[in-house]
Amino acid sequence: MDFLIFKAPMLMVQASLDGILLGILFALIAYGMALQWGVMNIINIAQGDLVILGGYIAYTMYLAGIHPAWGVIVSPIIMFFVGWALYKLVINKVVDRDLFISILATFGIAIVFQQLMNFIFGADVVVAQSEYGTTMLFDNSVTLPNSKIFSAVISVLYAIALVIYMKKSRLGRAIRATAQNARAAKILGVDTEKVYAATFGINAALCGIAGALISITLTLHPYVGLPYTVRSFMIVIVAGLGNLPAVAVSGMGLGLFEEFADYILGTEFRIGAVFMLLVFILVYRRFKLSKKREYLK
Amino acid sequence: MNKLTKLFITFVSAITLTLASISSSFAKVEGDYIVLGSAISLTGKYSSNGVHTQNGYNMAVDRINKMGGVEVQGKKYKFEIIYYDDESNPKRAAQLAERLIKQDGVHYMLGPYSSGLTKAIAPVTEKYKIPMVEANGASRSLFTKGYKYLFAVLSPANQYLEVAIDLAVEKNGGKGVRIAQAFEQDAFSQDVRLGILDAAKRTGSEIIIDDKLPKELNDMAATLAKVKATKPDVLVVSGHTKGALTAIRQISEMKVDVPMLAMTHCDAAKLSKQHGKKSEYALCASQWHKNLSYKDKFFGSGKKYDADFKKEFGYAPPYQSAESSAALLVFKDAFERANSFDRDAVRDALVDTEMQTFYGNIKFGPGGQNVAKPMILFQVRCKGDDCENKVVAPTKWASDKFYHPIPKWSERS
């Protein structure tokens, strides 16, 4: 039974594909986190809860008889305004403070969101049905739910659109300028307050898309946001801020790592393995930095 | 601190003390009312089942009060329950139990929802020697600690899916089967797992996959890929509603063919609402089903209970409500047999309980668990997307034929 995966090559293919498809979705959430972390220097603990809220928006549409896939358009629009409002209410008061204050503030937001979702949508686990069917490969030995393929494709499309937007649009340039040097940008006439609000809104919108995709691929529950926060935090730590290709690669890497950890270490260590990897990477980075410092000496 | 502040503090503490002493004189019996206490999850992650539990309690209180109440020493008393919301949080539940006992003077408790919260409260009720009849804590460890004041109307968790393994072995011509299992890492599911391990040993079955699912997990793709590769005879999943829903979603999407799928927390109402006919053929462990032929004079039969509950609350009662209603019947019976409000007399009466309710027979074992009622298994059967629970085991109660093996996905429309 041990290392079943090495005995059955098809399992390897299955695990790799599952991991990559899931990883792309993680990368989208992580990209939002990297963006607002880079621009505003805020670590958003409520990231996962924004994702789940986005999912509930798609689920509500599904209940109303609309196909949940439309959620990938409706949910980001609503979530953008949720993010904007959140910025105006809470985040703008902590944006210039130290990291610890913003972590506390977003942790508070996470709890409020969880309870609100629990209150509005109930504590039951819910799923939305896409009825997209399944793709079977290699004589039915590898199966891929089409909803997962759909979610990966949508994530990639949105990521590309966002990159282009950040490069070409006025707001995109303003966001990048603010990220590089907020004070200089302000002096040059960028309304940084607005940029911050828009950045937080865009991040929430990305979460909204991811949530809508999760509603048709996985399950929704008011209290499952935290693992998404942890994963995106992890991806951003590995990839660094403001580097989209690296975020995508590290997202897929994490997806693969999780799937293989599941087969090799056992399902119970799946999430544990992610945390272990996080610790390892943090230590490794510190080690590398300390080496660099020696050169400077 | 100036004089005024000191005076103020003294004044406030005096008032608080007076209030505290007044409220504790409410105590167990107040006028014509026997006051019971319960901390229950009205908010937080257990809130839906918490509300089912509360509805079950309330339904029984109304019914018993309407039908004459509880007769102790020739006088009729009515039930009343003080509820507090424990926010699905064990620490809060333990605090509230203390508050119910010490401040509100409650002498008899009803259980909260879930094994975890019952575990948090039991040491408190035990400390104050308060009899607690609980209906929603099935974890085996509750019954091995030697608690003297804890009584559970439900069957312990390790019995949930044992029947399913017996059934699989029976279908396999009495030979052992190959079992794949995935259990969440919480007290309840791990107890269910222990039950399966026992059953496997007893029947000579082999466990080929034994995955433990992290609490946060909502993706079982890896486990199911293993199942696909190893082709077991039975797949057993227990991870509360989340586990059941995730399993059905991914089994149907990955087209995993297993001859038998046994789960906990997979009420047809919940499963088919989310998944329609994809949930068909799943075997679910249940404490109760309305079609069982148990009877009592308060609710009549299971079917009658089902109809009355629907009328009152607008939805079909899940077993969580039924067992909660049964807890009140147990209390009434114990009070009348004890013919006293002395806590120890009531406790002794509870120990001697032997009765039938619409929910099943109730008789407490030495650990406080109900030993008189078997678990039942039902199979989800659908017509279109309209699914129903059909009782298939144990044979005595089976109303329908057990459908085995589950047709392959390629043959299912």
Characteristics:
heterodimer; A: 297 residues; mainly alpha; 12 helices; B: 413 residues; alpha/beta; Rossmann fold; 2 domains; 7-stranded mixed β-sheet; globular
What's the SSE blueprint?
The complex is a heterodimer of chains A (297) and B (413).
Chain A: H1 4-7, H2 9-40, H3 47-63, H4 71-94, H5 99-121, E1 134-137, E2 142-145, H6 146-168, H7 170-180, H8 182-187, H9 192-217, H10 226-239, H11 244-264, H12 270-296
Antiparallel strand pairs in A: 1-2
Helix pairs in contact in A: 2-6, 2-9, 2-10, 2-11, 3-4, 3-5, 3-9, 3-10, 4-9, 6-7, 6-9, 7-9, 10-11, 10-12, 11-12
Chain B: H1 3-24, E1 29-30, E2 33-40, H2 47-66, E3 70-72, E4 75-85, H3 90-102, E5 108-110, H4 115-127, E6 132-134, E7 150-152, H5 162-171, E8 178-184, H6 187-203, E9 206-213, H7 221-230, E10 234-238, H8 240-253, E11 261-263, H9 268-275, E12 283-286, E13 295-296, E14 300-301, H10 302-313, H11 319-338, H12 343-351, E15 354-357, E16 360-363, E17 376-383, E18 386-393
Parallel strand pairs in B: 2-4, 2-5, 5-6, 6-7, 8-9, 8-10, 10-11, 11-12
Antiparallel strand pairs in B: 1-2, 3-4, 12-17, 13-14, 15-16, 17-18
Helix pairs in contact in B: 2-11, 3-4, 5-6, 8-9, 11-12
